[in-house]
Design a protein that fits this description.
The complex is a heterodimer of chains A (about 150) and B (about 180). Chain A is of the alpha+beta class and about 150 residues long. Chain A has 2 domains: about 5-45, no CATH class; about 65-135, Alpha-Beta Plaits (2-Layer Sandwich). Helix content of chain A is about 40%, strand content about 25%. Chain A contains 5 helices and 6 strands, in the order H-H-H-E-E-H-E-E-H-E-E. Chain A has helices at about 5-15, 20-30, 35-45, 80-85, 110-125, and strands at about 50-55, 65-70, 90-95, 105-110, 130-135, 135-140. In chain A, strands 3-4-2-5 form a 4-stranded antiparallel beta sheet, with helices on one face. In chain A, helix 2 (about 20-30) packs across helix 3 (about 35-45). Chain A is elongated. Chain B has about 180 residues and is an alpha+beta fold. Chain B is built from 5 helices and 5 strands, in the order H-H-H-E-E-H-E-E-H-E. Chain B has helices at about 20-25, 35-45, 50-60, 95-100, 135-145, and strands at about 65-70, 80-85, 105-110, 125-130, 160-170. A 4-stranded antiparallel beta sheet of chain B has the order 3-4-2-5. In chain B, helix 2 crosses helix 3. The two termini of chain B are about 30 Å apart. In chain B, about 25% of the residues are buried. Classes of the chains: A alpha+beta (about 150), B alpha+beta (about 180). At the A-B interface, helix 1, helix 2, helix 3, strand 1 and strand 2 of A face helix 2, helix 3, strand 1, helix 4 and strand 3 of B. Strand 1 of chain A pairs antiparallel with strand 1 of chain B, so a sheet runs across the interface.
Chain lengths: ~150, ~180
Amino acid sequence: MDALDRKILNRTQLGIPVSDQPFADIANELGCDEQQVIDKLQTMLDDGLLTRFGPMFDAASLGGAFTLSAMIVPEERFGEVNDIVNAFSQVAHNYKRQHTLNMWFVVACESQQEIQTVIADIEQQSGLQVFDFPKQEEFYVGLYLPV
Amino acid sequence: MSDSTYPSKQQQSENLTELERQYILFTQNGMPLVSKPYHHLAEQLKISVEDTLAMTNDLLARGVIRRIAAVPNHYRAGYTFNGMTVWDVKDEEVQTYGKLLGQLPFVSHCYRRPRRLPEWNFNLFAMIHGKNEQQIDEYRIQIKKLLEDVLQTSANSSNEMLTSSKILKKTGLRLKAK
C-alpha cells in the first residue's frame, strides 16, 4: 500500500458522495485522477483488503428481526453447545468471549416471532438459559479503520 | 426471554417499495467501480439516473442506507483486536452518554440493551477495535473516564470489556429475493 492507497481507503471508508461521478469528486478532493481512485479501489477489493464496496444497509430495514444473545456454557460442554447453536441457520455470528456469559451470538430472523422460537429451541436442545439482549436504542453504527 | 415491555427500534423496520427492494438486491453485493455507477444501476432498475440518485438520497435520509463506502477487512487492515465494552449507566443518562461514546473514533457500534438481573447489570454496549491488546485496553479506560459520573456500579476491569477469544461462526446478512 502506498500513500495514495491509504488516502483513498481512509477517505472512502467515510462514505462517498451521491453524485453522477462520485470517484471524480473523491479524486478532486485528494488531488489525483478519477481512474486512479477506481483502479486502486478495485485492486484493494481483488486483494481482499476490502470486503466490499457499496451501500451499507441497516440490516433491520431489510425487513428482518435481530437480537444479541448470550449463554453461560460450562467449559466442558462448550463444543457440544457450540454445535447446537451454530446448527441454526438463523445464528449469523457467534463469538466465544471471556466472561461468565461466554458465548455471544446474533440471531437474525424474518420476524420477532421466529427469534423467540429459535431462542426457545436453543434452550430446549442445550438445557441452558439464553439471555436475550435486543437493541433498545442505537446511538452509533459505523466503523472507521484508518490505515 | 425477550422483554416485551421495552420498545425496540428494530421492530420499526422501514417499509420498502418494490423498486427499493430491487435497489437493495442489485447493490447488496457491492456497487460497480466505474466512473458513473448510478448509470449502471439506473439501467438495471429501468428508471432515470436522476431518479436513481434521488432514491439513493432518500434511502440515506431514512437510514436504510447508512453510507456508501469502502468496507475494509478488519484483519487485513491490522485491526485484529476487538472488545465489547459494557457499562451500567443511570437510565436517565444513557442516551446522552451513548451518543457521546458513539462519537469516539474507535467505537463501531453503540447500543442501549436491557439488563438481565442478577446475571447482567449492563445497559450500554460499545464495541471497540484496535491493533493490539494494549490499545483496546487504553480505549476501555478512556471510555470509563468519560462515564465516570454516571456509572452506577463499577465492574472490575476484567468484567467491563469482553474480548473475543474465538470466532465460532460468521456469516453475512442478505436480503432474499422474493
